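Is it possible to get an amino acid sequence alongside its tokenized fold?
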Amino acid sequence: KQWYQRRVRGDLISRSYPEAKIHKPVEKLPTISVANLPQQFTETELLSAVLKAQPNIKSLVDAGEETLKVLKVKKQIKNDKFQASIRVSDNIRRIIAKQNDKLYIG
């Protein structure tokens, strides 16, 4: 009910002030975490390792259709391994989900 009230209120504002532009927020792409990396990688090294081990993802990225960007690699708190945050497109996220949410680096 609250969602409906917000929508009605937004429509009312749109009708009351037609000169006002309403901007829809940009949708964010999924971000995944890859934990337990055995060594520290640079963003470029990790991206190369992922694309080398995942030819199906590499073909999508090479075609320019999909997004795969390593945001950061940091040391994990509990052990001596590393963790990466990677921004992916929806299609690449689906591919990883089909692999039991595992991203193999080789």
